[in-house]
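Re: the 166-residue chain
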Amino acid sequence: MLIVTVAATVSCKTRRSNSATVGATATEGTTGALHPDSIFAAIERSPCFGRCPVFKATIYNNGKAVYIGRTSVSKLGMFTASVTADQLKSLSQKATELRLDTLQNQYVNEHLADFPSHQIKILTGNILKSVYVMDTDPPSSIIEFEKTLEELLDQLTWTKVSQKDE
């Protein structure tokens, strides 16, 4: 059932306006570690007019991970994997080390026409911190966290979800 819900919520999106991004972030601020199906961390990369990788990966508090690859990625479609408690702890420690909770909610350059956006989410304490980026020069801590998160995702053993399960 969770996979169906995730699939329904991650349909192709158009680039968000600043007001939509701010609104989305404000409602996410209350998500916490109280429920095992709550988001622990996520990364999403949007399309561009070129060959940008387009995917969304979400890790939940219970250790379940869901990856949906859209275009220009090696895994196309929906996949699931498991994340260990140690991996969750390491990711949380990295977010704390990088002080992601102190970042702005968005870094947007309004003058970029064809630039892929990306968004990260990480549970810090009981708050799901969300940072939306569409800029050529975001803070280095965002880039470093994305690299750490993507390295973790590359280490996981992914299982493709058949279409009937989607």
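The longest strand covers residues 64-71.
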